[in-house]
Amino acid sequence: MKDGWIKIACVTPKLRVADCDYNAKQIVTCAKEAAEHGAKLIVFPELCITAYTCGDLFLQETLLEGAQTALRNILRQTKELSAIVVVGLPYAAEGALYNCAAVCYGGNVLGLVPKQNVPNYGEFYEMRHFTPGQDADDHLVDFFDGRECYPVHFGAKQIFRCKQLPDFTFGIEICEDVWVSNTPSTDMAKAGATIIVNLSCSDEVIGKEEYRRMILQAKSGSLFCAYAYADAGFGESTQDMIFAGHNLIVENGSVLAQSELFTNGILYGDVDVQRLQQERRRSNTFSPAPDGTVMVRNLFSMELTETPLKRHIDPAPFVPVHETERNKRCEKILTMQAIGLATRLQHIGCKTAVVGLSGGLDSTLALIVMAHAFRISGLDPSGMLAVTMPCFGTTDRTYQNACRLAKAYGATLREIPIQGSVRQHFRDIGHDEAVHDITYENAQARERTQILMDLANQTGGIVIGTGDLSELALGWATYNGDHMSMYAVNASIPKTLVRYLVVHEAQQTEDSLSAVLRDVLDTPVSPELLPPEQDGTIAQKTEDIVGPYALHDFFLYYVLRFGFMPHKIFKMAKIAFAGEYDDKIILKWLRKFYWRFFSQQFKRSCLPDGPKVGSVTLSPRGDWRMPSDACVALWQKDLENIM
Question: Which residues are part of the catalytic machinery?
Answer without folding.
Answer: 46, 115, 175
